[in-house]
Amino acid sequence: MSGLPASGARSGDTTGMGVLRINGTTALVTGGSSGIGAAAARQLAGAGARVFLAGRDAAKLTDLADRIGGTAVIGDLTEPAGAAELADRVLTEAGRVDVLVNNAGQGWAGSFTGMDEPEIARMVALNLTAPLLLTRAVLPDMLARGRGHLGFVGSIAGRLGVRDEAVYSATKAGLSVFADSLRHETAGRGIVITELVPAVVDTPFFVRRGRPYDRRSPRPVSAERASAALLTAMFAGRPEAYLPRWLYLPVAIRATLPRTYRHLSRHWG
Length: 269
Known about the structure:
Helix 1 (35-46) crosses helix 8 (223-235), helix 3 runs parallel beside helix 4 (117-145) and helix 9 crosses helix 10 (258-268). The protein has helices at residues 35-46, 58-68, 82-94, 117-145, 157-160, 166-185, 205-208, 223-235, 248-256, 258-268; strands at residues 26-30, 50-55, 71-74, 99-102, 148-153, 191-198, 201-202, 221-222, 240-243. The protein contains 10 helices and 9 strands. The chain has a 7-stranded parallel β-sheet with strand order 3-2-1-4-5-6-9, sandwiched between helices. Helix 2 (58-68) links the parallel strand 2 (50-55) and strand 3. It has a single domain, classed as NAD(P)-binding Rossmann-like Domain (Rossmann fold, 3-Layer(aba) Sandwich).
């Protein structure tokens, strides 16, 4: 993948911290059966990492794990004990996690009042609670060793808010603020925390949320490109990666000129 250090290579360190070599690391990727998670698993394995793929689709996970020499861990992160069971399994088998890619997530499109309480609870559990709990499980050992990479797949919806995706936007906003807060808390202790902020990625996400993507812009990018953007930023020690890069513009406008942003948003959607 373009920009990701080859096996055993050392990436640039833009944070003043020691940035991990990929070769020989242990990586845990959630949502590993398809989309960005599957792409990340392939790319990390190709760079020499030992990869654990987590998800609910046993057939797809096992097939991919066999092809890349990884380990499939079947489980449901929406269940109360799901994150703890996943972390225990990987830490027991591997002894440590050097790279955590919090990718698992789901969407839902429609009016907020049309969303039932169980669906809200499942989305919050998967998109927000599970990444917090998995990070909490692996972070102490990372801090003790003075190195580790935490990656979060966010969304532009979490930076701007999107109509008919209120709960999804809220979970991604929470994830973004969590990453920022944890970055401050762990500053100078060898932990690199990176968030991918994509617009539209060509994955089964839109089919599963119940509404296909039908806008002309932004154009969808491939899961491989999205994963490469996240991993490249992670191993370069960068805090975030926008995809496409111009996405930072509406975020900057919203932060500095909120009234102007809301006017433009009402007009352009």
